[in-house]
Amino acid sequence: MERWLRGWQPFALLLAALVVAPFLVYPVFLMKALCFALFACAFNLLLGQVGLLSFGHAMFFGVAAYAAADLAKEWGLGTLPSVLLATLLSAVLGLVVGAIAIRRQGIYFAMITLGLAQMAYFLCLRAEPLTGGENGVQAVPRGTLFFGQVDLNGNLAMYFFVLAVFLAGFGVIARATHSPFGAVLRAIREHEPRATSLGYEVNRFKLVAFVLSAALTGLAGATKAFVFQLASLTDAHWQTSGEVVLMTLLGGMGRTYGPIFGAFLIIALESYLADFGGWVTVLRGVIFVVCVLAFRQGIAGTAVAWLRSKSLER
Amino acid sequence: MQALFSQLLVGLINGSFYALLSLGLAIIFGLLNVINFAHGALYTCGAFAAWLLLEYAGVGYWPALVLAPLLVGLLGVAIERTMLRRLYRVDPLYGLLLTFGVALILQGAFSLRFGSSGQPYQIPAALQGSVDLGFMVLPYYRAWVVVCSVAVCAAVWWQIERTRLGALLRAATENPTLVRAFGVNVPRMITLTYGLGVGLAALAGVLAAPIYSVRPLMGADQIIVVFAVVVIGGMGSIFGSIVSGFALGLVEGMTRVVYPEGSDTVVFVLMALVLIFKPAGLFGKAA
Amino acid sequence: MKTKLMLVVMLAAVGCKKEEAASTTAPAAAAKKSVKIGVLTDMSGLYADLAGPGSVEAAKMAVEDFGGKLGDLPIEVVSADHQNKPDIGSNLARQWMDVDGVDVIVDVPTSSVALAVSELVKQKDKVFLASGPGSTDLTGKACSPNTVHWAYDTYALANGTGKAVVQAGGDTWFFLTADYAFGQALERDTSAVVTATGGKVLGSVKHPLNASDFSSFLLQAQSSKAKIIGLANAGGDTINAIKAAHEFGLTKGGQQKLAGLLVFITDIHALGLETAQGLNLTTAYYWDRDDQTRAFAKRFAPKVKDHMPTMVQGGVYASVLHYLKARQALGAGNTSGAAIVAKMRELPSQDPIFGAGTIRADGRHVHKMYLYEVKAPADSKGPWDYYKLVREIPAEEAFLPLEKSVCSLVKK
Fold first, then answer.
1. Range C6-26 average pLDDT
2. How confident is the model at residue B117 (pLDDT cuts 50, 70, 90)?
3. How distant is the Cα of B137 from the closest Cα of chain A, in angstroms?
4. Are A119 and B265 an interchain contact pair (Cβ–Cβ within 8 Å)?
5. Which domain holds residue C388?
6. Are C90 and C223 in a shared domain?
7. Using CA atoms, how far apart are residues C339 and C126, in angstroms rounded to an integer?
8. Residues C201, C297 within the same domain
9. Which residues 41-70 in chain B show a CB within 8 A of chain C?
10. Is B237 helix (H, G, I), strand (E, B) or coil?
């Protein structure tokens, strides 16, 4: 079962579904889901593999969104260069934040990331020339690709760009997970002192994982800024951090494909309940509670366990 | 100079809320090893409980000061009994996620029922009016807030650090099995402790109701600052959280005079500094 | 791996070609089944009382008064809650226009959301009738041929309240400003008027939107010794600031007075006359002004918990009515937003809310404004009887003169 999951078949299935989807479903909804799916997968790299729960990932998402938006709108940089530069900025921010936060573990780590993210949020609020304060950065031009050959203003063209970005990011995460590097991360998660005794520089591994997670989160945020042509404070708010935790928890922590399902499901739910704004918060809370109490493996985890039990029966 | 004194006094008033809230949080964390993310929402519950008591039962401010924390404390007990208890054997992160979910449910429910704008709640007649201190006018009610908060914090601290019950609590944190062997009902103690922490949050809510508007989101942004306070004070230290709470209020007040734009981020800067130089917190024991 | 990559690229190329095809056939293919009016508003937040469900009712009333149909097409009113967040608002607007066939978006309190929506509406060539927001940027540097700004803007309020208060002796000001686009615009415009009328601005302090505690900001206002404390904020923030000022005794002794730069009758209702008396405010609509306004209010109130309409809700009514009239005159076939707005500009508007009005080249709807003072409790004959008229401001004076506009659509 596990080996099948690690192979190319599930990836091909997912790819096929995603390629066909925009012709059946409103592409902007799909693009939002893909950005958040990448966000969730990047977050899951830290949580599922290393066991570090960061409650502040929205800061990377938001800062990258602002950076990409500014680069494209104010500095006239192309779409792809803006996204890449924003990702780089996110990685640097990840390095700084990680260096402070890695010093502690478990709940402390979560609190620290939350506090630092809140500080970043207030800085975004204040830095009006760069972030537009409460207005956000608006009217971000979608731009073009391949030196003007492909106009991204059309929803379909934009969708395939986002899909490509998602696949690239997901590819990096999958590669990192199923590699010796990933194995060391999991070893650290399971028993840090043992990993240290085996000679691994635990803090360095954790920091690398953190920076990678931050960078890919930034990639998701920068792309999102172009999809909606808007970077706003909501992107950096702690509620967004909470949302990605929820997506990962629901989808299945530590599973490769889990967060993707979690992201799509949550975005779909919010879209469906858009008219009933208040209910969305309550529902999010209920899902959290139910998942933590009774559904800790998430969708992907439960599905795999069920399939495994089926194959054992045979 | 006048500006400094007045801002410091206002800061002290804000600090009273921080102290009460971080005290409750520290107690819960100290004994249950749970970060109670729902603390902000329970603070909101306290304020709404006071408002509801007045609106539907005609119960005024003074009885509400006792009733609201009791009622919300009972809610806390229910939460602990039905949900938190199941998570003690699992990674503490799940406790955090659970309380986060509870916070969302409570916040969402209040928003649905009451909308985002505030409900009015009057300052009780006995405390209306103000006194002119020369450098500023101090409303009586705000002075009461400081007095009440200091009294409650001192009482709780004394109870935990200096009485037999408190000693039992502290022992149960360190070695529940042994304490149980002595015939003490540890699970019940844990439940009551959670209830106490929640009750403190609710008390802060009742104190806040007349001066901050009673809004569903009143606890949401407050809670993150309170987390930072607890980290600064030292996660398990009761004394540390009380002192840090008041101290932060004063520091914020000073910041508002010197560099007003930085007043909302100063707590996080402090938190980062404390973490770099003294990771266990100012009063915490080394992890 | 390589084959999969090539597959994706090929499909993408095909997809883009299809998109070009799709976008050219869309207008003809989209057979319009109805005229949809989208009320994008704040249903549960800071501005829910002055806009919110009341705005939806106002839109429905306008549709009713128009006859419910445009030619053969029925008129539908849909609504959504933007929660005062620009990304939620712009997402809703985008989905409405892309998927749900909404032709015109109305209301949108909160300037940051309005600016985002205005940009989107321009891209999709629909219509935006903004009665909720206050930022002059909507008819200034962010003006658009698809947007009409109704009811009020920060200049009109600054001009009304600012000028009159300075002329009455309040010549030193200190601002308490909400730290976002609208608040800053209000402070900026009022400062300009105060200085032009001969007053002085001693300073200002910015507070976060939705702040719960105003004590430290009010202390700064107090220590400035300015005669007037200008409240450059709205909704719950204004209410809380006025309450806190009352609590700290700021206005006792008469040395300092409050000037509410954007106050709605729903705010006065929440504060009570005891706390709010003497407050000067400017508005475009007061329910008790004349027979027509009273008739409208009488129809409106029972639908909205017996609240009297605010100028925002009145603005929704007036703008929807005028839009429908313009579309009828243009003919049902033409759905271009810019064309409809051009027609709206051509036709003078007349409604029970604002009386007679016109729409200028920059999208600004121009009408009379009124300066009121809040009555003392003794002078009020019943609930909602809150204002006494101080001054009528003629339409030509009330808004930013067209020559001073920075809008690119205004020919100089």
1. 41
2. low
3. 30
4. yes
5. 155-289+369-392
6. no
7. 9
8. no
9. none
10. coil
C49 touches chain B (CB under 8 A): yes
Q: Do A160 and C88 touch (CB under 8 A)?
A: no
CATH code of the region A2-313: 1.10.3470
Domain map (residue ranges) of chain B: 15-218
- DSSP SS3 for B234: coil
CB contact under 8 A, C223 and B3: yes
Q: Domain check: are C145 and C165 in the same one? A: no
Residue in B with minimal Cα distance to C271: B120
**pLDDT tens-place string over residues C104-141:** 999 999 888 999 999 999 999 999 999 999 888 899 88
Contact C240 B6 (CB under 8 A): no
Which of helix, strand or coil describes residue B137? strand
Q: Where are the beta strands (DSSP E) in B68-226?
A: 130-132, 137-139
Taking CB atoms and an 8 Å cutoff, what residues of chain C touch B111?
Answer: 44
User: Does C333 map to a domain?
Assistant: yes
Closest Cα in chain A to C84? A134
Task: Tell whether the torsion through CA atoms of B86, B92, B97 and B102 is positive or negative.
Answer: positive
Q: Does the predicted TM-score (pTM) go above 0.90?
A: no
C244 and C309 co-located in one domain: no
Which of the residue ranges B161-170, C208-217, C289-298 would you say has the lowest mean pLDDT?
A: C208-217
Question: In terms of domains, do C52 and C193 share one?
Answer: no
Could you give the number of structural domains in chain C? 2
Mean pLDDT over residues C270-284, rounded?
82
pLDDT in tens, C56-114: 999 999 999 999 888 888 999 999 988 888 888 988 999 999 888 999 999 999 888 99
Residue C194 located in a structural domain: yes
SS3 B139: strand
Q: Which of C396, C375, C397, C378 is nearest to C386 (CA)?
A: C375
pLDDT at B287: 46
Q: Which of A114, A282, A291 sits opposite B224 (nearest CB)?
A: A114
Assembly ipTM: 0.84
Kindly determine whether residue C216 and residue B256, on different chains, have CB atoms separated by under 8 Å.
yes
Q: pLDDT digits over A71-95, tens only?
A: 998 888 888 899 999 999 999 999 9
Q: Is residue C26 part of a domain?
A: no
The C-alpha of A254 sits at a distance from chain C's nearest C-alpha, in angstroms, of 24
Does C18 reside within a domain?
A: no
Nearest CA in chain B to A113: B272
Q: Do A285 and B108 touch (CB under 8 A)?
A: yes
Window 203-262 of A: residues touching C by CB (8 A cutoff) are 228-230, 232, 234-235
